[in-house]
Specification:
Blueprint: H1 4-9, H2 42-53, H3 59-62, H4 68-73, E1 78-81, E2 85-86, E3 96-97, H5 107-118, E4 122-127, H6 138-151, E5 156-160, H7 170-176, E6 181-183, H8 193-196, H9 202-215, E7 220-227, H10 233-245, E8 250-255, H11 272-284, E9 289-292, H12 302-320
Parallel strand pairs: 1-4, 2-3, 4-5, 5-6, 6-7, 7-8, 8-9
Helix pairs in contact: 5-6, 6-7
Length: 321
């Protein structure tokens, strides 16, 4: 029987999944609304030095986030734990695929030190997928959360986790550490999963988010998707309903940008007006907060969004009292 470990062991380390699309495909020209300036500020350089001196990895760099200049200038960064190598090969992602290294037991302390150095009031922690680990890295997530709490008790913590597929008990370990926000991205609509997110299962991800609320209703839940991957508008609206059926509080919607010609192509660039309409529809469906714009990413403006999210819940509770 072929196991996940067999598959990983036989897989080369790749920056771009070989299964992706033809390198000679037409590349759509970026519209003006999706363009950003290159990062050159003093704040950016200072953040980069803190990240490097603590020997940490950020998804900002690994995923080629277009907002890195803006966020790092403000000393905001999303730390990516458990290494730089992912056990999956999603067609949209620029993180390397292959055989991961062993977990670093000192990483939680280094992350906590960097959070303190940067003076973060809100921090986002994400990771690569670690299908090679019995718990998918759940215990490591919990240790990072506890280390940050010990170093900077007032810092609110948002985590962006893998799906912990077939990792019984993993979710419970993470939820017990009590992050303030539990984020797990659906990434795209169900019809795209085989080509865009082949290692994942759509309804497992929905159920994961639902279970967080069942275990601890006080934790905010969050999920996001990219658009421009060939999805239909009605599929996005159905996905919104699926998230609301799982009591998800916050949804993010952003434009997919192709990291290289070997990745899934951009089928179209969604207009700012369409993004605004998704935000309006999402609010009518009952989300406490919807962030929807071409440059929206899971952790973009996460601190400000958390404040808005908490205020929205308080307003809702006051209204129902």
């Amino acid at each position: 029987m072929v196991t996940v470990l067999d598959t990983i062991a036989n897989a080369p380390r790749l920056r771009h999944p070989e299964k992706a699309h033809k390198p000679d495909q037409d590349v759509l020209r970026k519209p003006d609304w999706i363009r950003v300036k290159a990062p050159v500020s003093k704040g950016y350089a200072e953040t980069r030095e803190i990240v490097k001196s603590n020997k940490l990895v950020t998804v900002c760099e690994e995923a080629g986030c277009p907002n890195i200049g803006e966020c790092w200038d403000k000393k905001h960064a999303t730390f990516m734990i458990m290494g730089e190598i992912c056990t999956r090969a999603c067609a949209f992602c620029n993180v390397a695929t292959g055989i991961p290294t062993a977990l670093d037991p000192d990483e939680p302390a280094r992350v906590a030190h960097a959070v303190k150095q940067m003076g973060l009031t809100h921090v986002v922690i994400t990771s690569v997928d670690r299908d090679d680990l019995a718990d998918g890295g759940a215990q490591h997530f919990a240790e990072v959360i506890r280390a940050i709490r010990a170093a900077t008790p007032s810092t609110t913590i948002e985590i962006l986790t893998p799906d912990f597929l077939r990792k019984e008990g993993a979710l419970e370990i993470v939820v017990a550490a009590k992050p303030d926000v539990f984020n797990h991205n659906l990434e795209t609509v169900p019809s795209n999963y085989l080509t865009v997110r082949p290692g994942a299962r759509y309804f497992h991800s929905i159920r994961l988010l639902q279970r967080v609320k069942e275990i601890d209703p006080s934790i905010f839940t969050k999920s996001g998707i990219m658009v421009g991957l060939g999805e239909e508008r009605n599929e996005i609206l159905q996905l919104m309903d699926d998230l609301r059926s799982a009591n998800v509080d916050f949804m993010t919607i952003g434009q997919y940008l192709q990291p290289s010609k070997k990745h899934h192509p951009v089928i179209r660039f969604v207009t700012p007006e369409e993004f605004k309409s998704f935000e309006t529809i999402g609010r009518t469906k009952g989300f406490l907060l919807v962030a929807s714009s071409p440059l929206t990413r899971s952790s973009h403006h996460a601190g400000d969004d958390f404040a808005r999210l908490r205020a929205a819940r308080e307003a809702l509770l006051a209204k129902s009292a």
